[in-house]
Amino acid sequence: MNSNDASQEKLRPVRNESGIDIQPLYTAEDVARSGGAAMVGLPGEYPFTRGIHPLMYRKQPWTMRQYTGFGKSSETNQRFHYLIANGQTGLNVAFDLPTQCGYDSDDPMAEGEVGRVGMAVDTLRDVEIAFEGIDLDKITVSLTINGAAAILIAMYLAMAEKRGYDTKTLRGTAQNDILKEFIGRGTWIYPVEPSIRLVGDTIEYCAQHAPKYSPVSVCGYHIRESGANPAQEMAYAFCIARAYADEVLRRGLPIDEFAGRLSFNFNIHGNLFEQVCKFRAARGLWAKIMKEQYGATRPGSMWMRMIAGGGGSGLTLEQPEVNIVRGAYYALISALSGAQTMALCCYDEAYTIPSEYAQRLSLRTMQILIEEMGLCDTVDALAGSYYVETLTNQMRSRMEEIMAEVDAGGGIVRQIADGTIQARVSAQAYKMQRDIESGAFRKVGVNCYRTEAASPDVVFHPYDEVAAQEQIESLNNVRATRDSAHVLSTLARVRDDARSGVNLMPAIMDAVKAYASVGEITRELVSVFGHCREPVRF
Amino acid sequence: MNDKTRRIRVVLAKPGLDGHDQGAKVVARALMDAGMEVIYTGLRQTPESVTRIALEEGADVIALSSMAGSHLPFCRKLKPLLEHEGLGDKLWIIGGKLPERDHDELRALGFKGVFPSGSRLDEIVNFVRTNVS
Question: Which listed residue, A27, A62, A175, A191, has the most CB atoms within 10 A of its CB?
């Protein structure tokens, strides 16, 4: 075949998930045509496309924060110590569904669910046990909690205070992104409006009392897991982050007093270049939004700080051991993308709560990148590639288009409340499932390279009914020994403050310190706010 | 008595506190595309509410989607309620994160179709078509 034949050869068209057509070759002309190098800049400088810090990992590698939690808080505490002993540098707490949805372990709705997908928390006592022996100045803690976030943040701060930490210097993160729960994941409790108020209350309270704590981690992650493409993932997350910022601004707090503590949680599965460019593009876009639309002046207010590394829906049930390899690529993508924190999905995660073995493998995967592969030596190593810079520009344009579309449609809050975004995302999930089944979208081990050879067994994490019973007994024990009259008066204040509209955090802090339970505090709030009625639309 | 003009009615429910509804919504769309009528309940259904909705909607098919591991305790409670309301002759199916070791018990509980994650949409659609009498 001579070169002439090659140029006339009909090439398979390639379009990435975000809808951008990919060329076989890029040159400087493509960079110029897509917008040039204006947004590239330097790491640590506006618009931060190349990273939020000037030296990035050369100064300090990413925080390793595997997602963990199951059963009673004492069991979870043991796993925390195991992970820290194996080199983990942060904690990422999984709560069981009753805790996430605001039910106590003895509630009929909690039956069969206590401690199943995460740690059970009823009262401050459980949080005290979970973090026993862990130095909260050295190990930062991320709480994966949303509907019940105000209560769990209060418990965490109260626990730290009791142990003598100054909440003014305490670092850590709560997920606390309720709007995305309506799109995916589903642990909402109250209707949309009071839910946003609670997020605003936590941001405002932390700005004043725990200024180094990140009260919100806005999650594109679960929106992507629900079917959004990578550009939508970022665009919807930014729309949601703006909604929280608007809520706090309405209360009179200046943007620079809280924007620096907003953080993000993003997904990593899919095409490597699309993900890396997605993050580079998004960093620049978020900085521009904060500076130009919100008038932020502090660099920290413009930083898109993020956790990445997970992408459960990219993993497969088929040939689960192959997920170890996928996990390694996910870690590589996260490192090339400048993530502040990584939480890798474990290979057995499609089946069960990850085993100690699987979690150690994930830690080693990240440690290999740090120690052996040179990922921490140089900042934003892919910068300057014609392809990467072009695609970064194109991804930024896609995200801006999608954000404009949401704004034109009435804004993210309205479009989530009426189910528009959910319907759009689930229509895409359906199309993707059809494409996987037809083979149009290739997935190794699923629709190509299947094998009859047996995979090594995945060890299932057993559901411990005894532990669930013990959790209920320990809740009863707390109830029997606390000052009931005091609990009742703190709960009455929660209800009154919910009605009057003042910031709820001081009342919730008092209630958790009196050992009021998650379920009791939630019931007071529901009595004022009501329950969410899920909009179901197709 | 197979009335060809009547569309198959499927009540598709998310049991318990599990909020992962992507799979349920994908299956709902596949069943609708196949011409069936789907009543999707949304999240947080109890055994009692599933039974009530199935009864009110005149369901031919009662379908559950469970991703968080509590399918067995839920189905054990649901079975007598459905039977008590005379829904024992309807087609019961379940999909989601269902470990293989639980499949026999689910079938014994009356779930004729068990579709673990990774099942093909056409397989589910065809199963429903074939088994609704």
Answer: A175
